[in-house]
Amino acid sequence: MKKKIEEDSKSSNSLSKRSKSKLTNSEELHRIEMKQQDPKIRITNFEEVSLGLTEEMVELETQRCLQCGKPLCISGCPVNIKIPQFINLLKEKNFIEALYKIKADNLLPAICGRVCPQETQCEQACILNRQGEPIAIGYLERFIADWERKNNLKECPECAAPKGIKVAIIGAGPAGLTCAGELAMNGYDVTIFEAFHAGGGVLIYGIPEFRLPKDIIKREIETLEMLNVKMEYNSIIGKILTIEDLRDMGFKAIFIGVGAGLPILLKIPGLSLNSVLSANEFLTRSNLMKAFRFPKYDTPVKIGKIVTVIGGGNTALDSARTALRLGAEKVIIVYRRSEAEMPARKEEYHHALEEGIEFQFLTNPVRFIGDDNDNVSQMEVIKMKLGEPDESGRRRPVRIEGSEYLIDTDTIIIGIGTRANPILTKSIPELKLNKWGYIETDENGQTNIEGIFAGGDIVTGSATVITAMGAGKKAAHGIVKYLQEKYLEKK
Amino acid sequence: MPYEILEKKELGRSGTIYEMVLRTPLIAKKAHAGNFVLLRVNETGERIPLTVADYDREKGTITLVIQVVGKSTKLICNQNVGDQILDVVGPLGNKIHIKRYKNPIVVIGGGVGIAPCFPQAKELRDAGNEIITILGARNKGLLIWKEKMKTVSDELIITTDDGSEGMKGVVTDPLKQIMQKRKISLVIAIGPLVMMKYVALTTNGLGDLPKVKTFVSLNTIMIDGTGMCGCCRFSTLEGDIQFACVDGPDVDGHIVDFDNLLKRAGRFLEQERDSMECYDEECRALEQLKKEVI
Q1: N or C: which end of chain B has fewer CB within 10 A?
Q2: Radius of gyration, CA atoms only, chain A
Q3: Of A310, A295, A357, nearest in space to A42 by CA
Q4: Are residues B123 and B205 in the same domain?
């Protein structure tokens, strides 16, 4: 297989190769569209919105791939999946090999195929963008992972022989799971310590069922367990066990992937009113604790008639769409910048529009107003305009004085971002942090303490699932290098 | 990891308060006065915070005292010795600061809040402090852990609303008397929000009595218990926001906006009622089924 790709790579990556294709001109320019649940129906359930591709669709889409000699898509991927190769295998209907090809670089394709912002990564790099739409790489990745699930397979790559060296992973989120998988494949004895009663981190408490079914995460963790990764739930490191305890237990290296879990709350009047809550609380209730199935599940979630969500990222969108499904009559998203600056995945934004979510851009909350029982009843907002670019490169929103107005609302969800959780880092006083409380690491993911590595949101601040996975992978390589030099080469 | 119930007994004559001893070796090793655990009974259960009322590092156990107030607490109290709790997370929250104070410490426990007073009184007394304990309950039948508290107190005062045991009245009555007579270094109050509010009002130095540093223990609604959701947040009288789970659960009673907290505490009442009704219905159906089978 490799050989064929190499032969292909001799040819130039120009678009002229197209002439060989059997596709019509329109098929060449436009990517395949994934089937979806009808918006009117899907807002009444928590089932997945996007339904995946059929084999016929995959056949059409894979033919569009030019099999570039110097594929740009691979470098657009934070974990460098061999994208053209897996697409070529898919084209040949060699699904199992395609699956292996992806899993060699990414153990969690069912997750990434669904939640990666492909439009700013692999698909943005695709050369087809110059003429039409890029290859639907995310859809294809998801197809092959779904094919594995449908056929009841749980494929995992070959592992190296056990080395008898223990590594502890703190946090079972995307960074921790990826790091664990990489290390297990390299023959290390890995234990993941997770604070919650279920693994997945943000995948399980943050992302709703209709975007990422929880069964998928469960299966991906089962795959890791097949690689002999041990899961210790309900274990908050820094509380139940310290780093010293872990060292005493024989762990030779430790990876910290605890995420950036603390919600940023707006410090404006009315924050302590009832039914003003963080997106973290709202989503954790619904996703992890399954409040959407109350009273079958005991955790309640309260939803009003008019729900206002503050923020423009995926978390805000997830909250808004969850609120809709829980029975809100109207859901408004208030975002202080404009549509163009929204950090949310494009696809999710379109889905939200289809579902009838109302967007009020360039609008910022001023205060929350409550009734006599301290229940929220209104939100005062102010219109904004875009000024000069700030440190994020986006134009800074500036208040338009005198433009305040009131929005009637009985539930307010704040989804404006998160910051570092200090529980673990506080328990290791010598660990070097930056001024925001995030851990400082070198290019191998190593912290200032020997044998302790870190990656994901606790290093970078909140980013995407795949970025955290990339960091987990990088740190795993750093750990392998460290352990090899320290414990294996000397012997 | 299984968390087995090793002991269970009913406290007082209430029919609603239970003491349970759980096997949690790792938590027992690290627990201190002030810490709490989050407990989820089964797959469909919610996570509820309970303050550690006692711990035994050798036996690897913690003791919890639970009063039935809603479905989840009822579900826990319906478990028996030998049953396993699905999830127990902890020890969470900050442990209390232990030091030797110049003057006596008044420890005030109200209702089921008496139980978490025990490790605080014990650890502070072990550090050489004089402990004056005031226990309050609605009536004699609801008074718990009297004998146990005696073992960690230099003086023990009891109040009941109806006078069925000790003084007739509320905990702030003897507190005021003590404060008039003696210099007090610290007051610790654990119990219903209303009780803690009035203790804080008694000791805040704004009335005729001197100001005394006062800690209250906040048992707010929680989910993760690690500062992640903000569900447990409370407002200070100055309008700042703090989280009971990571800034507490023991906090300076003089800064807490109790009136807002009282309103927040009731925000799920409707759902809690529905949940309880469903559970009672389930239990009745199960009883019926058992009868039919027999």
Answers
A1: C
A2: 24
A3: A357
A4: yes
Q: Omega into B249 within 30° of 0, i.e. cis?
A: yes
- What is the least distance, in Å, from the CA of A280 to any CA of chain B? 5
Fold type of domain A166-261+420-488 = FAD/NAD(P)-binding domain (3.50.50)
Minimum-distance CB partner of A234 among B89, B239, B263: B89
Q: How many domains does chain B have?
A: 2
A437 touching B (Cβ < 8 Å) = no
B57 touching chain A per CB within 8 A: no
- B121 and B172 part of one domain: yes
Nearest residue, CB atoms, A272 vs list B46, B229, B235 = B235
Q: What would the pLDDT profile of B69-114 be if each residue is shown by its tens digit?
A: 999 999 999 999 999 999 999 899 999 999 999 999 999 999 999 9
CB–CB of A234 and B227 under 8 A?
Answer: no
- Amino acid residing at B210: P
Domain with CATH 1.10.1060.10 in chain A: 2-150
Residues A278-335 have pLDDT tens digits of 999 999 999 999 999 999 999 999 999 999 999 999 999 999 999 999 999 999 999 9
- Domain check: are B173 and B199 in the same one? yes
**Residue A491 pLDDT class (50, 70, 90 cuts):** low
| Pairing label, strands A306-310, A411-414 | parallel
- In which element (H, E) is residue A185 found? helix A174-185
Q: Are residues B128 and B197 in the same domain?
A: yes
Q: What pLDDT does residue A490 have?
A: 61
Identify the architecture of domain A2-150 in CATH: Orthogonal Bundle (1.10)
Q: pLDDT tens, A386-409? A: 998 888 788 899 999 999 999 999
Best to test chain B binding among A218, A234, A244, A245 (most B CBs inside 10 Å)? A234
Exposure letters B6-27 (e unless 16+ CB within 10 A, then b): eebeebbebebbbbbbbbbebb
**Please, are residues A261 and B210 in contact by the beta-carbon 8 Å criterion?**
no
Residue B241 and residue A271: Cβ atoms within 8 Å?
Answer: yes
B213 contact A CB<8A:
no
* ipTM of this predicted structure: 0.93
The reported pLDDT for the residue numbered A30 is 86
pLDDT score at A21? 55
Determine whether the interchain pair B27/A274 forms a contact, defined as Cβ–Cβ distance below 8 Å: no
Count CB pairs under 8 A between chains A and B: 114
Structural domain includes residue B127: yes
3-state secondary structure of B262: helix
Which CATH number describes the domain made up of A264-418?
A: 3.50.50.60
